[in-house]
């Protein structure tokens, strides 16, 4: 009998191999990893309570391996094959993000693991965007781009072979997994050689830099990797001294006592020498490094409040430095409750419940109010970490690295159906995942207190 390794083991190996490759390709990313590790270490030393909380909830181990990456592809076939490639690593498409309104002609999903154990092991995610050629106005340029894309194959024959094998067997053996990781990595590698001549590159670039980035190369080079920090403000402050040029502002919500959703910033993309067909030298700017700080996942109500406050802050933060931007955000977000108890009582965020030792030993408990049970120390609630992305922030990250100002908007609108058709599968709605996790943890906690789960 052949022993198969788990999808999660393969994802863990792949994410480490990808990180090593990217450190090699973009040495500043290695510096960024060191800076993040240093700040995380200092933060944990300063805040032993945080360290303990992360440890008891399986988050300390994953901190060191945690990162996301991003790629952009050009056709339905490429996207559909990527779905199968990521499935080998237990990663499924979660969420639909429309970026056309923000002036970026793509729509996206995030491939990621979804169950608790898999997330605790290694939550590696890849934000994956599909170019929307239909949004290019000029018919000639549209056809030219489609023609170029039709000629390339971004997967090695070995990668295709291992994907099919994994689908047939249910997973891969140790040796096959090694081969899969090496072959799959080729899809994400940077190629100095463009597939087109400089004139074609420039024509596509003039339409939108992103179109040139997607269309003119052999593959969808990984364009950034993002480690998770526990103090994004501090990493942003220290970036210049470490030789990195940070983007102007940290995207997302302001700093809070109870962090919500996701805060992100990046160092700016590097200009890299590129060889075009006809042996002409030029440069291409695409690859960068990013950091993220994750907070609690918000319910639909919490998210609506976040979107409203962010919308209100936008008029007031335009053009501000990060410091001033963060001050205004903090003022506007004063309307967002900032204690775990309030977030829970108002149904703004998702929590995971567990019975305490005292709870399990208490015997039949008469009390059924969740908040009272928490006060009595019979169950605990901890915030569920947000594992997904934010479209407004993603647009900000795209723009700061593509040189756009975000004022341009494509006439297109969200088209989830078209995206799912290209993908060949539906995307999972992220809120359902958090709601299910909250519900099942509460059911289990109440059951161990001898309380029938409330519906
Ligand atoms: C993806 C930008 C979005 C994030 O963290 O929000 C993203 C890209 O530039 O391809 O990675
Ligand atoms: Ni990112």
UniProtKB/TrEMBL annotation:
Sorted UniProt keywords: Dioxygenase, Iron, Oxidoreductase
Cofactor: Fe(2+)
Pfam families, sorted: HGLS (PF07063)
Residues annotated as signal peptide: none
InterPro entries the UniProt entry points to: HGLS, YdcJ_bac-like
EC number: 1.13.11.93
Family (UniProt): Belongs to the 2-oxoadipate dioxygenase/decarboxylase family.
Annotated protein name in UniProt: 2-oxoadipate dioxygenase/decarboxylase
Source organism of this protein record: Chromohalobacter beijerinckii
Taxonomic lineage of the native organism: Bacteria, Pseudomonadati, Pseudomonadota, Gammaproteobacteria, Oceanospirillales
């Amino acid at each position: 009998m052949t022993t198969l390794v788990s999808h999660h083991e393969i994802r863990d190996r792949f994410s480490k191999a990808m990180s090593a490759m990217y450190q090699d390709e973009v040495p500043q990313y290695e510096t960024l990893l060191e800076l993040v590790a240093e700040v995380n270490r200092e933060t944990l030393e300063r805040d032993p309570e945080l360290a303990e909380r992360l440890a008891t909830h399986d988050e300390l181990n994953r901190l060191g391996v945690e990162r996301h990456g991003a790629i952009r592809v050009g056709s339905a076939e490429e996207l559909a094959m990527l779905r199968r490639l990521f499935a080998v690593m237990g990663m499924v498409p979660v969420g639909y993000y429309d970026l056309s309104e923000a002036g970026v002609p793509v729509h996206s999903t995030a491939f990621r693991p979804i169950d608790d154990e898999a997330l605790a092991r290694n939550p590696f995610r890849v934000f994956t965007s599909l170019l929307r050629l239909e949004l290019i106005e000029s018919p000639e340029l549209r056809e030219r781009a489609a023609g170029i894309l039709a000629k390339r194959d971004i997967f090695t024959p070995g990668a295709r072979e291992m994907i099919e094998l994994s689908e047939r067997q249910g997973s891969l053996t140790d040796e096959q997994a090694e081969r899969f990781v090496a072959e799959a990595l080729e899809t994400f590698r940077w190629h100095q050689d463009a597939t087109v001549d400089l004139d074609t590159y420039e024509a596509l670039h003039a339409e939108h830099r992103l179109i040139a980035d997607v269309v003119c190369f052999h593959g969808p080079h990984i364009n950034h990797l993002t480690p998770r920090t526990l103090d994004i403000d501090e990493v942003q402050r220290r970036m210049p001294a470490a030789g990195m040029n940070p983007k102007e502002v940290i995207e997302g919500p302001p700093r809070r006592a109870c962090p919500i959703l996701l805060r992100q910033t990046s160092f700016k993309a590097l200009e890299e020498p590129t060889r075009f067909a006809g042996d002409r030298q030029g440069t291409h700017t695409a690859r960068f490094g990013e950091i993220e700080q994750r907070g609690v996942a918000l319910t639909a109500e919490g998210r609506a409040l976040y979107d409203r406050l962010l919308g209100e802050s936008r008029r007031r933060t335009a053009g501000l430095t990060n410091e001033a931007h963060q001050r205004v955000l903090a003022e506007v977000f004063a309307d967002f409750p900032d204690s775990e108890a309030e977030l829970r009582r108002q149904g703004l965020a998702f929590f995971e419940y567990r019975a305490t030792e005292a709870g399990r030993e208490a015997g039949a408990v008469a009390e059924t109010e969740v908040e009272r049970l928490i006060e009595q120390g019979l169950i605990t609630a901890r915030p569920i970490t947000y594992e997904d992305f934010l479209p407004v922030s993603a647009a900000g990250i795209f723009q700061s690295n593509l040189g756009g100002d975000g004022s341009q908007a494509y006439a297109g609108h969200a088209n989830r159906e078209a995206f799912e058709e290209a993908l060949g599968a539906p995307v999972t709605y992220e809120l359902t995942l958090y709601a299910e996790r909250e519900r099942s943890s509460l059911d289990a906690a109440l059951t161990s207190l001898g309380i029938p789960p409330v519906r």
